[in-house]
Specification:
The chain is α+β, with helices and mostly antiparallel strands and 503 residues long. 26% of the residues lie in helices and 27% in strands. The chain contains 12 helices and 25 strands. The radius of gyration is 23 Å and the shape is globular. The model has no long low-confidence stretch (mean pLDDT 94). Bound molecules: flavin-adenine dinucleotide. Flavin-adenine dinucleotide (FAD) binds at residues 2-8, 25-28, 36-39, 105, 128-129, 160-162, 165-166, 186, 269, 288-290, 296, 299-303, 305. Flavin-adenine dinucleotide is lined by residues 2-8, 25-28, 36-39, 105, 128-129, 160-162, 165-166, 186, 269, 288-290, 296, 299-303, 305.
Length: 503
């Protein structure tokens, strides 16, 4: 594993959870000290729940767990041009057993790292990849640590080395997209903002005024916030933003002329939009920013990195444990690259709306509904058996169709005398059914829980009625569905699973 950011650490953790031996390296001294990606979608929290770290991650949202407010405005008290998420927006608990998180990256990465190590993964910092070559049987990596170089041989390599990563270049995968969009100065500061922002909610302001264009966002550390300011590298550099000037910009942003913030860090970064041509080259896979770089307008860079990590981890683990054929690995790019494209396109559309309205035009992709994208995406690959001709890439998760390719919906069922979410039944291949014929099938490696459906939601939201059955993959995606009963259920299920696992 090259990289120990959100993508690399989650892939490492999910592989270790499956009992796979994994070595992670990172050239940095440790996890990110910068708050960067703040916010976890419901889907991310559902994945972290599987890893047993959802509560620990959510603890980072303390004080911000009332939700999210997003506005495009002149300043915190100035004219509001557009409200994207409102103080009153509430989460519909019928959609997920997990609430969304508001933790920042500097809180989440150490949680993932600790859990990955606890599960047996080895993660080495200040260890840099310097060369990579693959052959038919494995991958050979040359790494440098403390001035010494050595060779590591692995069955597979995951490039989770971020948007300036070298793995993508070593395996000669190109990338396309609008590319670099804008240059920013990031100012991490401490100040009491309690009278300016909505208490108990994560507040994100996109700011456009005569002095600058940028953002102001609270973090999960009390009093800590981040201001970003767009600059033109042809005319200025980071050196033109000393603390004194940053304090002035903060006073403009907050409308508090005597604000006395404590400036902790001033950095620069580039906002960009790229999609890699492929997410896989033989035994090498790309995840997170190494696979695609999305503008942060949408808050999906870190979330998608975790989603990528989870996806490649369960598929690689199934192949390495001999449960699946190599063909299952084809489904990683087939499913995650179109998803990455939707994320990049939708975030780019948000970027134009929130930061750069002058770029609006026919070449700008359509905006993408956040909820549809995060909970209603349809996977299409050899690892799902789709039997309809609907080409739509997403559906409304509040009104799920239960068709193969979509996330298996959250429904409360009765199982072993307790009420639980269907999502807590998944982790291995699972058949959901209310039909005793399907329920009696005995198939190796497929769990068939005995369920009651007091609300009728299971039959309805999964579209299986009383007769049918729905086969759920280890990642909680519907792989196959039938509305009918059969005379030889075990053979039917075994055939379906063998097809899906490329055996
Ligand atoms: C200012 C800012 C705000 C953001 N806000 C959000 C947000 O609100 N929500 C959101 O979801 N996302 C946000 N993002 C994006 C998010 O931070 C990234 O998408 C996410 O961190 C990507 O994770 P990653 O693991 O792919 O890469 P990274 O976090 O970049 O990690 C790369 C890893 O690779 C390692 N590495 C690189 N090269 C080598 C090498 N040669 N050898 C060994 N190791 C190497 C590094 O040490 C590091 O561990 C933001 C980003 C920025 C910059």
């Amino acid at each position: 594993m090259v990289g120990a950011g959100l993508g690399g650490l989650s892939a490492t953790l999910f592989l270790a959870q499956q009992g796979i031996e994994v070595l992670g390296i990172s050239k940095h001294r440790g996890t990110s000290p910068h708050p960067k990606a703040t916010g976890q979608t419901h889907r991310t929290m559902e994945l972290l729940r599987r890893a047993g770290v959802a509560d620990e991650v959510l603890a980072g949202s303390a004080g911000l767990d009332g939700g999210l407010v997003i506005k495009v405005a002149e300043s915190l008290r100035g004219r509001v041009f557009h409200t994207i998420m409102h103080e009153d927006d509430e989460w519909d608990t019928a959609l997920s057993p997990e609430r969304s998180g508001m933790a920042s990256q500097d809180h989440v990465e150490p949680v993932l790292l600790r859990r990955a190590r606890e599960l047996g993964a080895e993660v080495l910092f200040e260890t840099e990849l310097v060369a990579l070559a693959q052959d038919a049987d494995g991958v050979t990596a040359r790494v440098r640590s403390a001035g010494r170089e050595y060779t590591v041989r692995a069955d597979y390599v995951i490039g989770a080395d971020g948007h300036r990563g070298v793995v993508r270049e070593w395996v000669e995968i190109g990338r396309q997209g609008p590319g670099e969009l804008s240059h920013h100065i990031g100012v991490v500061f401490d100040a009491d903002m309690s009278s300016h922002i909505v208490p108990d909610k994560l507040t994100l302001y996109y700011l456009r005024n005569q002095a600058f264009t940028g953002t102001l966002v609270a973090t999960n550390t009390e009093r800590r916030n981040v201001l970003t300011v767009e600059y033109d590298p042809a005319r200025e550099s980071a050196a033109d933003y000393p603390p004194r000037r940053c304090v002035e910009l903060l006073r403009i942003a907050t409308d508090v002329p005597d604000l006395e913030p404590e400036i902790l860090e001033i950095t620069r970064w580039e906002m960009a939009a790229w999609l890699s041509d492929r997410f896989r080259a033989g035994r090498v896979f790309l995840v997170g920013d190494a696979a695609k770089v999305t503008p942060p307008t949408g808050g999906l860079g870190g979330n998608t990195a975790i989603g990528d990590g989870f996806d490649i981890a369960w598929k690689l683990a199934a192949v390495l444990k001999g449960e699946a054929g190599e063909g299952l690995l084809d489904s990683y790019e087939a499913e995650r690259r179109p998803y990455g494209k939707l994320v990049v396109d939708g975030s780019f559309a948000n970027y134009v709306q929130r930061f750069a309205p002058q770029l609006a035009g026919p070449d700008v992709p359509d905006e993408v509904d956040h909820l549809h994208l995060t909970l209603g995406y349809r996977c299409r690959s050899n690892a799902v058996l789709i039997d309809d001709a609907d080409p739509a890439p997403m559906e409304n998760p509040a009104d799920p169709s239960g068709r193969p390719g979509f996330r298996a919906p959250h429904v409360v069922v009765e199982h072993q005398g307790t009420s639980k979410s269907t999502l807590d039944l998944f982790g291995t291949w699972t058949l959901l059914t209310l039909n005793p014929v399907w329920a009696a099938a005995d198939v190796t490696s497929v769990e068939i829980p005995t369920l009651q459906d007091p609300t009728g939601d299971l039959a309805k939201r999964y579209g299986i009625g009383q007769q049918g059955a729905s086969l759920i993959r280890p990642d909680g995606v519907i792989a196959w569905r039938t509305t009918e009963t059969v005379s030889d259920p075990a053979n039917r299920i075994a055939d379906v699973v063998a097809t899906l696992l490329a055996h």
